[in-house]
Write a structure and sequence with these properties.
The structure is a single chain. The chain is α+β, with helices and mostly antiparallel strands and 292 residues long. It has two domains: 3-94, Phosphorylase Kinase, domain 1; 105-291, Aminoglycoside phosphotransferase (APH), C-terminal lobe (Aminoglycoside 3'-phosphotransferase, Chain: A, domain 2, Alpha-Beta Complex), CATH 3.90.1200. Helix content is 43%, strand content 17%. α8 (254-273) runs antiparallel to α9.
Amino acid sequence: MQPWQIIAEHIAQVTGTPFDPLEPRHIGGGCINTAVRLMDGGRGYFVKLNSASLIDMFEAESDGLQAMSETETIRVPKSLCSGIADGQSYLVMEYIDMGHAGRDGSAKAGRQLAEMHRANWTSYGWHRDNTIGSTPQPNSPNDSWIDFWREQRLGFQLNLAERNGYGGSLRRGGERLLEGFHALIDHQPQPSLLHGDLWGGNMAYDPEGNPVIYDPAVYYGDREADLAMTELFGGFGNAFYDAYRESWPLEPGYSTRKVLYNLYHILNHLNLFGSGYLGQASSMIDRLLAEI
């Protein structure tokens, strides 16, 4: 049996309606996964594929989509089912035709993200580990945001970088930062529900101009970590930030903390994609050490 038949049978089982798809249409799946659109002439589904060993990654992503959806704030694709077919893991979601932001789309995204961030938990972390890209992302609950970020974000990525051959001055600077960066986090953020990987490629707009976010790396943490990543690679306009700050103003010191939070993602890019990110990671560490 072809993998598409297995996936189609799973869709039919979950929906209670027969599903006989046409030939799958391959679409962009980013740097990590393969993606296809399955259609039967009426219904359409977005299917992500990877090796069978990464089924936990898709199951965690499904949980993250569900967690964000339950806030009833910003639109999130509905996750339908996941499994393994012909040696490949898969995740099936609703297919959303993407349109344009429209006149008010960016501002709406800022307001709705602020509302999603008001969903909170008793600790930092999450009920399960997940991934950031294809890198493991530990989320063991911790009552201290500083300890959580030191151990499960920066410390984890620095250890991984050393195993990948990026020790030396990067490791030495990183160790100094781990010892002193508590001076940079001078506020006590609530554990907000975060998308976790919110760059411009993980937000779009449906045909009505409503923002849609997807490909999450969900956990509970400082909402500024999400805002920081929106600034890392661009793609979010002034209307987005103005609306977010109007809905929920940021604490003083964000301009420094965003460098600390984005260092996590640059270290992850170093570990995923190689030495092209080494200089940027080192420069960010030097800047933060100068602040300390």
